[in-house]
Amino acid sequence: MTAVETVAVELATDGRVWVDGVEVRAESTEAARAAAVARVEELARARRRPLRMVARDPDGSVYEVDVAPPGVPADPDARTMPARYAGRMAALVEASRRRERSAAERAEALCQEVCGEYGSGHPYALRVRELHGIVMARAGRPADGVSVALDVARGWHDLGSADASWDAVLTAGRLWEHLGGAASSEGVWLGERLARALARCGERGAAQRSAVLRRVDQLRML
What we know:
It is a single chain. The chain contains 8 helices and 5 strands; from the N terminus they run E-E-E-H-E-E-H-H-H-H-H-H-H. The chain has helices at 29-47, 83-97, 103-118, 123-138, 142-159, 162-178, 187-200, 206-220, and strands at 5-11, 17-19, 22-24, 51-56, 62-67. It has a 5-stranded mixed β-sheet with strand order 3-2-1-4-5, covered by helices on one side. Strand 1 (5-11) and strand 2 (17-19) form a beta hairpin. It is elongated and about 65 Å long. The relative contact order is 0.08.
């Protein structure tokens, strides 16, 4: 389970307050508390996820407040899918593992259904699209699977969901290496896309990015 993101709040005796290191001015300590909560609510809406405010009062006491304003989803990364989709997704995973010929067609139909209802960039759609990419790869279309997984990673990145984006990048990497993407005629292009996606992940993607770029250089020499 993804940890709740925290926002640090520091209050001063003269009514000043710092939220994530940015000063917010107020007339009193009480007004500063209200201003801090309002600012954290703004951040929660912008980041599309509940936040935990960790506030330090002028006397040094620390308290925590979970901030989830209306309209902010409780499960922004769609770790739990609606029941009407979850069962079908689980069945598709099993069908794909058994290499059932209908799996890819069923995955595409589910993808179209969810994207049609919510839009292709919605968290539910991104989860189904990632599964569709995995199913396509197992059905003998590894390059398509890698491409879809990378599109999904970008979608999560645009939503500000760093952990979900990282998961999708790892999926793309596994498909690229183990399901034939790296050996295909599109291996270099897909490897370059994968390297760019890893670069967006910052430090935790650095080692994998270096390995991917080395492999891309090898593929160019073939």
